[in-house]
Amino acid sequence: MVALPASAKDNTVPHEIYDATQPSEWAVMEYTWTLLGQQTNQVGTRMKKAKIEPKVMEIAYVKNTDAQARVALNCTINQMQLAVTLGGEEGWRAYEEIMFLTNTRNRKVNVYVNDELQDRAKWGYFKRTNSLYAMNTMQTMLLYNNIIRGDKVEIEHKGERYDLTLPEPNQSFANWGAQCGVGLLKDTVETETAPRESIARGHEAAPGLPRGVTKK
């Protein structure tokens, strides 16, 4: 498979400059990516190109933050994904290359919620983008719940601890993730398959989105 470059949909790639007078908040953007594959004809060795329909990634990221580690949640069809950039780049930038890189390295990442160490899980690491990618979908779901609860979340990678900036949910965050079975709009779309449960065994269910965020 040959990956075509991802492209922002309708020029929605943000270019905000950090402003210390403005609070951090959740924002949502859409990103598209397309793969171009090669198919072999059964007779002889003729090859033909087969274009796969573009996939739309709906990315929730933290806007206006100067944090070194920046989070982005991605919903593509019915799959939720979590990425964290470690070099101060916008969280959504992890997905500019994360879909196309094949030299993923496995890393052990410690996750602390309210200063309590959680179960260890393997993450993928992308050197070129200095990004971490949660390989376990449940890790993404749990972080989604942490955001709703207002938990303090930190990650530890290679001995360095990072405090994730997780603002309280706003309207943008509440409307995000319908294709993945979360958020206020989840009942307005049809998912291809039933989404996985967002609560791991032994964890309490999230209390739901706070008052003030409503369906538009």
Q: Can you count the beta strands?
A: 14
Low-confidence stretches: 1-11, 38-48, 193-205
Q: Write down the overall mean pLDDT.
A: 77
Rough shape?
Answer: globular
* SS element count, helices: 2
Distance between the termini: 40 Å
Strand content: 35-45%
Secondary-structure-based class equals mainly beta
Pattern of helices and strands: EEEEEEEEEEEEHEEH
Oligomerization: single chain
Query: Main beta sheet: strand number and arrangement?
Result: 11 strands, antiparallel
Structural account:
The protein is mainly β and 216 residues long. Helices cover 8% and strands 36% of the residues. It has two helices and 14 strands, in the order ββββββββββββαββα. Strands 2, 3, 6, 7, 8, 9, 10, 11, 12, 13 and 14 form an eleven-stranded antiparallel beta sheet that branches. It is globular. It starts with a strand and ends in a 41-residue tail after the last helix.
